Amino acid sequence: MISISQVTKSYRGAPRPALDNVSIEIDKGEFVFLVGASGSGKSSLMRMVLREDLPTAGSIHVLGENLVGIPNRRVPHFRRNLGVVFQDFRLLPNKTAAQNVAFSLEVIGKSRGFITEAVPEVLRLVGLEEKANSLPSELSGGEQQRVALARAIVNKPAILLADEPTGNLDPNTSEGIMDLLNRINLAGTTILMATHDRGIVDKYRKRVIELSQGKIVRDEQGSGYGNR
Amino acid sequence: MRASFVFTEMGIAIRRNLSMVISVILVTFISLTFVGTAGLLQQQIGSMKTYWYDKAQVAVYLCTATSPKDVCPQGESSKDVQKTVTSRLNSPTLKPYIDTFYFENHDQAYKTFQKEFKNNAVAKYVTPAQLNETFWVKLKDPNQAPIIIESFSGLSGIEQVKDQRSYLDQIFSMLNIASLAAISIATLMLFSAALLISTTIRLSAVMRRREIGIMRLVGASNFYIQLPFILEGVVAGVIGSLLAGGAIVAVVNYFVQGYLVQQLPFTSFVGLADAFALLPGLIAIGGLIAGIAAASSIRRYLRV
User: Fold this and answer.
1) What is d(CA B136, CA B60) in angstroms, rounded to the nearest whole number?
2) Among candidates B88, B109, B89, B111, which has minimal Cα distance to B98?
3) Which of A47, A77, B55, B85 could covalently link to A53 via disulfide, CB atoms 3.0 to 4.6 Å apart?
4) If DSSP codes are grouped into helix, strand and coil, which group holds residue A122?
């Protein structure tokens, strides 16, 4: 699914590389927590899996695509197989929940018929069918993140990248989002989630990869957040 | 590809960025009006050339009593000079080049002068004797005027041999300069229109960066992301060129055909057909410049 091999990423002017000879293999259906302090390289890694950035050295294969060699024009097609959610939700403020989800399908050219079926269905899946016509400003943080999740999975991606999806939510709401992510994972979607949330990592006991100063310091199945 | 979606997005972009879009429309409008004017001037020159060159003749002016003494020392030329000129014009060397010629005496010249300078103060002071007796020579090929000029210049009793086209050429060169000036202004303004379009499109992209970010994340193709912005530029450019076309047609209809034609009845002027012929070109220029400026600007802004 995701194969990261000896990846180093240096930014110009930075004293040390953001990622230093990192190798990770993630299989289909896995749920992986990516933990580490701010600046440990989590975001750099996520960006490279999304092909928003290229490694300085090393290779990245995602869903059979060699992301270092893939031509620019094929990148959009590659990204259609990935879903992404962020800490800040990134919803369009002037569109309703349903329109936000529909927008992501419209821009990849899905038919109107497909959209009118898929959008209510995915909103039901995330438990928001009642709020389909609400604007993001009328929704709570947890609800907004559900809309973002609905948008990320409506196209049935093989991989879901979640960059601190509970970072802006209170523990109870986070719990709800985690349940949802778990269900998405059980349905077969591979999930790579970067997080600072000790409680969640400790509770779910998934595979944990810990980064520190750009290096992998721990990669354990069924682990917790760790002592740091 | 869903066309309705692209056009909706374009509509949103134009509404959000309305003042910039209007300025693009106006700059394109004005610059293309200059382009169209230059085009019309060129057509005008062309039609005047065919009209006037056809009528232009070579004039052989005979000396009068008031001619300058250095060219006409003997004063008013005699009947002999007329005979010499007539026989030369009929001679086998010159005849093949000449279509027709006729002689105009003092009284006829006076009549023509009075007609042409009607309402002009000078008509009151001129006497028939001051006006040259003239041989008007119409050539088969107007370009061969130098042959006539050479054969009669320097002949005693002849004040001057003049190819009328030399007057016309002055007028045409003035019109040419005017159309060149219009073209230079148009080029400058089109350049600024292109810059304005690329700034407008970039501004539009910045205002919609949230949407663009999401479109890129969910895997919208670059073409799909860029198309509404390019269309935004093209629509503004085409509206501007349509306005310019309207202005050109209006100028031809109301000023040239409605006013100039009545003021100067013996001149052929550009007509509405000429103005309409310019329209496709104007629209193509406006649309192309806007499209290219918008595409290059949005492409630089949106690298994958």
Assistant:
1) 7
2) B89
3) A47
4) helix
Say how far apart CA B235 and CA B13 lie, in whole Å. 12
- For residue B165, what are the contacts with CB-CB under 8 A and spacing of at least 6? B53, B56, B142, B145
C-beta atoms of B214 and A92 within 8 A: yes
Write the pLDDT tens digit of every residue in B207-253: 888 888 888 888 888 888 888 889 989 999 999 999 999 999 999 99
Residue in B137, B131, B133, B136 with CA at minimum distance from that of residue B113:
B131
User: Is residue B28 a contact partner of residue B290, using CB atoms and an 8 Å limit?
Assistant: yes
Residues of B in contact with A104 (CB under 8 A): 214, 218
Nearest by Cα to B221 from B41, B19, B33, B6: B6
B216 in A contact zone (CB under 8 Å): yes
Could A90 and B214 be called an inter-chain contact, meaning their C-beta atoms sit closer than 8 Å? yes
Query: How close B296 gets to chain A, by Cα (Å)?
Result: 16
In this structure, are residues B218 and A151 in contact, taking their beta carbons and an 8 Å threshold? yes
Global pTM reads: 0.72
Mean pLDDT of B107-132: 82
Q: Which stretches of chain A score pLDDT less than 50?
A: none
On the question of pLDDT at B144 being above 70, the answer is: yes
> What are the angstrom distances between the C-alpha of A157 and each of A4, A63, A69, A80, A113?
19, 11, 22, 7, 20
Show Cβ contacts of residue B222 under 8 Å, excluding neighbours closer than 6 positions: A72, A73, A76, B302, B304
Q: Is the pLDDT of residue B1 over 70?
A: no
Inter-chain contacts counted by CB atoms under 8 A, chains A and B: 58
Query: Chain A contact for B2, CB < 8 A?
Result: yes
Nearest to B158 by CA among B74, B57, B102, B91: B74
The Cα of A10 is separated from the nearest Cα of chain B by a number of Å equal to: 19
Contact A145, A165 (CB under 8 A): yes
The pLDDT tens digits of the residues spanning B145-172 come to: 888 888 888 788 888 888 888 888 888 8
Phi-psi sector, B20: left (phi>0), alpha (psi -120 to 50), beta: alpha
